[in-house]
Amino acid sequence: MRLPPLTEGRLVQRRNRFVAEVELDGRVVEAHCPNTGSMLGCKAPGSRVWLSPAENPERKLRWTWEIVEALPGVLVGLHTGRPNGLVEEALRAGRLTELAHYTEYRREVRYGRENSRIDLLLQGEGLPPCYVEVKNVTAAVNGGVGFFPDAVTERGAKHLREMMAVVAQGARAVLVFCVQRGDVREVQPADHIDPVYGRTLREALAAGVEVYALGAEVEPAAIVLDRRLPVLIR
After folding, report:
1. Are 139 and 190 in contact (CB under 8 A)?
2. In this structure, how many other beta carbons lie within 10 angstroms of the beta carbon of residue 80?
3. The domain over range 83-229 is classified in CATH as 3.40.1350.60
4. DSSP state letters, the chain
C-alpha cells in the first residue's frame, strides 16, 4: 500500500485518544490520532513520527499520525484505517493460500446477531462465504512477540462470538492479525491484558474459526504485508 507523502516530526505527547502534539520544523502542531487503543509502547514523547496531510483543507486537524519509530529502526504503522486494505491486498496477492480461491471481496458488510460489520466478506463460485475479521497489532515484547489486544476490548470478543455463529451455520470465519511492525516474529493473545478475549479466542478456535497473522514491512513510502507469522495460542 502506497502512502501519501509523509512529513517527519517528533512526538511531544499523545494528548488524548484522538489528538497528538507533534513538533514539525520547530513548531508544535495538532495531529489526528487514528488509533483509539492504548498504543502501548508506541507513544513515548520524543519518538520520531510521520504525519500525512489532511485531504480536506477544511478539516480542523490538518495532519494525521501514520507511523512511529517505537524502537530504534522499528517503524510501526498506527493508522487503524489501513489494515483492511492491507489485508485485502495480501489476499489478492495470494499470501494466504487458504483463501486463494475466492474471487469476490466486499467490505464492511453487516451480519450477525449482535449487529456487527465484517471487515471483508469473501465469496467464490462453489465456495462457502468467508467472513474475515482484521485486527491491527502494534504492541510487541520480548524480542519479536506481538500481541493483541493492547487494551481490554469487549468489541473484539463480540466479533469472535459472531464468527463462531457463522461457522455453526456452515460458513467460514477467519481472523487475520495485521502486524504493522517489522520486528515481530510471532503473535499471541494478550491474556495478561484481556483474559476474556484470550478465552473467547480459544473458544473460537475450538468452534472452527481460522486464525492467521501477516507481518508488514513498514516504511514512510509504503506498508506491505509480505510474510506469514505463526499464531501461538497455548
Report:
1. yes
2. 18
3. yes
4. -BPPP-EEEEEEEE-SSSEEEEEETTEEEEEE----S--TTS--TT-EEEEEE-SSTT-SS-EEEEEEEEETTEEEE--TTSHHHHHHHHHHTTSSGGGTT--EEEEEEEETTTTEEEEEEEE-TTS--EEEEEEEE-EEETTTEEEE-SS--HHHHHHHHHHHHHHHTT-EEEEEEEE-BTT--EEEE-TTT-HHHHHHHHHHHHTT-EEEEEEEEE-SSBEEEEEEE-B---
Burial code of 175-190, b = ≥16 C-beta within 10 A, e = fewer? bbbbbbbbbbebbbbb
Question: Phi/psi at 168 (nearest 5 deg)?
Answer: -65, -25
- Domain limits, CATH 3.40.1350.60, in the chain: 83-229
pLDDT digits (tens, 9 = 90+) for 102-155: 999 999 999 998 989 999 999 999 999 999 999 999 999 876 999 999 999 999
CA angle at 35 for the pair 84 and 191, rounded to the nearest 5°? 85
By C-alpha distance, which of 234, 227, 163 is closest to 202? 234
CB 51 within 8 A of CB 24: yes
What is the CATH number that goes with domain 7-77? 2.40.50.580
**pTM, full prediction:** 0.94
Q: For residue 154, which phi and psi values (nearest 5 degrees)?
A: -65, -35
- Closest-CA residue to 28 (of 43, 49, 42): 49
